Amino acid sequence: MDLEVELCFPQLINFSCRRILRPHSTSMLIYFSLSSLSWLTVTLNLLVIISIAHFKQLHTPTNILLLSLAVSDFFVGFLIIFQILLIDGCWYLGDLMCIIYYIIDYIITSASVENMVLISVDCYVAVCNPFQYPTTITQKRVCVCVSLCWMFSTVCVFIVFKGNLEQPGRFNSCSGECVAVFDQVAGLIDILFFCIGPVTVIIILYVRVFVVAVSQARAMRSHVIAISLQSTVKVNLKKSELKSARTLGVVACTFLICICPYFFLSLTSEGTELNVLSFAFFLFYLNSCLNPIIYIIFYPWFRKSIKLIFTLQILKPGSSEFNLV
User: Fold this and answer.
1) Burial tier of 37 (Cβ tally within 10 Å: 0-12, 13-18, 19+)
2) Residues 115/61, Cβ–Cβ less than 8 Å
3) Would you say residue 13 lies in a domain?
4) What is the first-listed, main subcellular location in coarse terms (predicted)?
5) In whole angstroms, what is the distance from residue 116 CA to residue 201 CA?
6) Would you state the pLDDT for residue 175?
7) By residue range, what is the domain housing residue 215?
8) Which of 42, 113, 220, 270 is the most exposed place for a label (fewest CB within 10 A)?
9) Quick check: is 210 in a domain?
10) How far is CA 50 from CA 44, 168, 193, 302, 320, in A?
11) Between 271 and 164, whose confidence is greater?
12) pTM of the model as a whole
């Protein structure tokens, strides 16, 4: 086979990395899948961002968390473009751009993980302490927590990538490679704060939410006939909270299903087949596209807002005051 076809940089015969040679049909399938995923992820999450940001009725603590998650998912859609560029295994954008890509990717994905933790806490308080929720989970507190979440991810990224920032490309074994290496301290921070820690917290909180939700559902069914008007309001409130908890639970479960294989393989990737790693990576990015689809299925207000956006009703004066719930 022609050596120029095998190398990323044919002019650097002794230093160039080798391409990943696949059948043309396989490469086109990967290109089409990633391109479609990127377009859907960007478009759907942009609809979530516009909906929550524009309509004042949607400015609730829970929706602010969903807005923050949609922002991170929106940028994940753009990051997929870089994976399209890496279909043949060659990085052509230089060492500095490689590190910038890793930094942006780390901030966005770690912020997404932290957002899921905040969403789990919000759901836990809403179901387990419903009458304290309005005073405990306020819009101001949620905004502060979301800001701290993004700030924490930004600070951590410079600690984790400190060695890579000192000399971009120092860990590349050949030209056309884009790798980043963590030291022990950076790896420990990454595992504790963005892998094992968040996943453990999410699982514990949702197990507690599930137990409480089941007990509340049974209590409502057994007392629904003999309740007063005041109790009816409380029951309806609990039903609304349980419905919201169910939706957020689906989001959290989808997150864990998509993210855990990637985290597991990132810790034990030595000797793992490339196809397995590629699938885990694809599943990791797929989660950002699935979240808006879950909102479409479970949230009537999101379906209404999409209709208003596509019919350009949001351009009318006073459209931010429309009733969606």
Assistant:
1) buried
2) no
3) no
4) membrane
5) 10
6) 86
7) 23-220+227-321
8) 270
9) yes
10) 10, 37, 30, 10, 11
11) 164
12) 0.86
- CB atoms inside a 10 Å sphere around CB 24: 7
Residue 263 in any domain: the answer is: yes
* First-last CA distance in the chain: 63
CA distance 70 to 264: 24
- Of 22-26, 162-166, 225-229, 316-320, which gets the smallest average pLDDT? 225-229
To which H or E segment does residue 97 belong? helix 95-128
Confidence of residue 232 (pLDDT cuts 50, 70, 90): very low
Count the domains in the chain: 1
Q: Is 2 a member of any domain?
A: no
Residue type, 81: I
Distance, CA of 211 to chain centre: 26
Q: What's the rounded Cα separation, in Å, for the pair 116 and 111?
A: 9
Q: For position 300, which CATH number holds?
A: 1.20.1070.10
Q: Report the percent of the chain where pLDDT is more than 90.
A: 27
